Amino acid sequence: QVQLVESGGGLVQAGGSLRLSCTASGDTFSNYRMGWFRQTPGKEREFVAAITWRGRTYYSDAVKGRDTISRDNAKNTVYLQMISLKPEDPAVYYCAASSRPVSGVMAYQDRAQYDYWGQGTQVTVSS
């Protein structure tokens, strides 16, 4: 099993930037593909970005070109750098990990494919 702890959320002005971090413990980090998801009240948790252990990345259309996911396997940490934050970006952002076999691109984008989740970190954007 792996435990995940997110950090880096907070209040930022529209157009600003924020970097989220997620540190893993309890298992070999490189065994897992990592994802970021976000959720707002009343809505389903949605995919934001994912990264394989080798560093291949996937993004939702909503954040493509603005967010960058990266990982440092030596530090057991995955990052989500967000720029040009918009009023529709506020949410609780969750880090997730999966070691399930990969079967298509949905293995990265489908929240049901992830077994381990952090507690979430709130991102708020002011206009």
Q: In percent terms, what proportion of residues is strand?
A: over 45%
Please report the total strand number as a whole number.
11
In angstroms, what separates the terminal alpha carbons? Answer: 40 Å
Low-pLDDT stretches:
none
Largest sheet: 7 strands, mixed
The run of helices and strands is EEEEEEEEEHEE
Helix count equals 1
Name the structural class. Answer: mainly beta
The helix content, as a percent range, equals under 10%
- State mean pLDDT (0 to 100 scale): 94
Subunit organisation of the chains: single chain
Rg measurement, Å: 14 Å
Overall geometry comes to globular
Can you tell me about this structure?
The chain is mostly beta strands and 127 residues long. The protein is built from 1 helix and 11 strands; from the N terminus they run E-E-E-E-E-E-E-E-E-H-E-E. The protein has one helix at 106-109, and strands at 3-7, 10-13, 18-25, 33-39, 46-51, 57-59, 67-72, 77-82, 91-98, 116-117, 121-126. The strands form 2 sheets. Strands 2, 4, 5, 6, 9, 10 and 11 form a 7-stranded mixed β-sheet that branches. A 4-stranded antiparallel β-sheet has the order 1-3-8-7, with no helix packed on it. The longest helix has 4 residues, at 106-109. The model has no long low-confidence stretch (mean pLDDT 94).
